[in-house]
Amino acid sequence: MVAGVVIQAAGVYANEIKFNPRMLGLSGEDAKGVDLDYFSRQNGQAPGIYSVDVYLNQNYVDTRRVNFIADKKNDVRPEFSAAQLKEMGVLLPASVPMADENAPLPQGLETYIPSATTHFSVSTLRLDISVPQVNMTDAPRGSMSSALWDNGITAALLNYSYSGSRTKDLNGGGDSENDFLSIHSGLNIQAWRLRYDGNLTHSSGGNSGDNSDANDSSGTHWDSLNTYLQRSYSFWQGEALTLGQFTTPSDVFDGIQFSGVQLASDDDMLPDSMQNFAPRISGIARSTSLLTIKQNGNTVYQTTVAPGPYAIKDLYSLGRSGDLQVTLRESNGQITQYVVPFNSLPVLQREGRYKFGLTAGKYRSGNNDTETPDFFQGTLSAGLPADFTLYGGTQYADNYTSWSLGVGRNFGVIGALSVDTTHARAEFDTSTQSGYKTREQYQKTFDITDTTLQASLSQYTEDYFTFSDRQDYYSDSGTDSDIFNRSYNKKREINASLTQNTQAWGAFSLSGYLRDYYDTGGQEKNWQASYNNSIAGVSYTLAYSETDTPGSSDNDRRYSLNLSVPLDRFLNSNHMWLNYSMNSTRHGPTSHLAGVSGTALEDNNLSYNVSQGYISGDDDSGASGLASLDYKGRYGEANIGYSYDPDSRQVNYGLQGGMVAHANGLTLSQPMNDTVALVKAPGADDVRVENNSGVRTDWRGYTIVPYVQPYRKNRIYLDSRTFGDNVDMDRNINYVIPTKGAVVLANFATRVGRRALLTLKDAQGNPLPFGAVASAATDGGSTSGIVDEDGTVYLTGLPDSGKMQVKWSDTNSCSSAYNLPAASNAAVTHLSLVCK
Predict the structure, then answer these.
(1) What does pLDDT average to over the chain?
(2) 747 pairs with which residues across the strands?
(3) Which of 634, 669, 660, 680 is nearest to 742 (CA)?
(4) H/E run at residue 260
(5) Strand-pair partners of 305
(6) What pLDDT sits at residue 73?
């Protein structure tokens, strides 16, 4: 930074280089107290408290204020206590004396753990800590301490979705209107979440409803779906307490709606490395070794293990199957390799995982003619050693009792298998029905061919009723002939799927089910087959489906072809596609549709589709077509479309969005998830939020990031290229870790004002010394900068007039009033000041 000066320092450390203040034109009293040594260090860092992003072994920990102090070598190091290190998962050796674990450690981390390192980047405000695995706690990868979870702010929120259509029937059936409004609303106070869900339906005209009598479904009515109060707890692997109207877990029994109280496990609280089933990898290392685990040729895990037994329990979810190739490289170069066959099923749990659900309340149903008894349900799934999972539960009501018990296991090369049985006793007015259901599930991936097979078989006795079947049972006459219902008259059900992936020839899938019923002939069948591939960027899908229904002679057969061609090779556009689709049915028409779709605008927040086609058939033939637009803006999402065919003309439209009321006002949003982030950047209007199409701050500098993951680190990044000329901030990146349902605040400290490049001189006209710190008051804070060798400093957020303070030692300082000229087209104002 000093022109005309070359420093050679062969064989010495950077901190041994000393700046001579006289090189900057300072002498005598002016040179006293000027300490610029920190500019000679690699990062140019001075001691002090910094707000930094802390990363441990490349994993984000949190954002915190860290004190950096100068040690005996005049280096700058971060200061931590033993308690802070333990919270991050770092274990200090037992030999380290600790009178007070909350007191700062007298030495740097590398003093206690020789292989540990710390590195701080001033430019990105990121502190990287590297610690050997042997000095880390046994916390799963990606886990976040519950102390870092943010319950968010007090807020009221409303999410809405409206859709409507107007249809003209060309066959004389009459025009129809349909409107549908869905809302999801709530109130957040600390960790409590109050939620309400409801729908408004309006329909009129000849084709307004599903019933044969249109008048039965015409009109306007409101449906209240759920009202509940919920909060999360982390005291035992993650639980959620729910009071009100909700749905029971569906991992053992079918989910049922209830009004009451429920305490159930919440998988979202677990880190990604502990969700779903994955096998435990164990063995013995003879020396410090590098352990690598691959699946399908991809590295999915790598770590260093200490000599002796090791156990890897935190593999990320690896899909449902795929053998694991384990390689152990010893310190002497010796390599040990082995394969762990891996297959999974939805019921399987990791070893040590206990998943439960306890529900007590009153049964709810959407039908008016059902019984609504009080009931209790309890379920438990336990991950046991040797890849076993034991699961089961019970249901009890005055008119119904059932229990279920099952076991599952990953059998390695054989595949994954589970077997369970459920007994149910249902009491009716004139009889008691007692029956059983048995179910077997199987999955296996054949690595040689990359083929995955899934299958399940369920068998029912004739007198078996589920809980919902019993309560929904209704008969006008009370005779047995009136109680037939396929939901509880099944005899057998088979589900199966086969997927085949190839590198060069695309992917093929086949799936379907078969059901037998008591007291009726025939079988209900449904199966689908599809093949998809991509050649030179052109993707296509072929599909076929077939459905057979007992007692129906009009069984359905459908064929389809979908083709998508990117037009970037021809039109210099990465966001436009040429599409073609063909759909044909056995007893219906065949339709062809071709058109163009894509996205437009700066954020690709405008989607469009224009297509023209033709329908041919025995009764209906003629042209068809559609055109649609969908726009995602900062205040919501809107869509409109028009379609026609030989039978009708239709206009459809919709509006979706959300709003959050908080202490600083009301902020409108695109459609929201239940967990959102509120961006607060006062004065920074029309700033784009990265990776969120159409999301920009409003005129006050607020916006909603509509989708954030609960219990995970979420990166909120404001695009600095969209900052106004009068807006600046030290950090345009924020990290939030919300709890489920939270409205978490992402607060950005903005400086709104003028940008100026100021040349500071003393009374004799000489530039002020290099390293001097210039500062000025701003609206709600201050702005500061370091003077360069020419006496120039760059400051942002300045008001039009004020007072500049400059200090370059404990005893040397000056001040100067300033008055910036009227704003011009230039983004930066240049001004010279005399500091006295």
Answers:
(1) 83
(2) 680
(3) 660
(4) strand 257-265
(5) 289
(6) 64
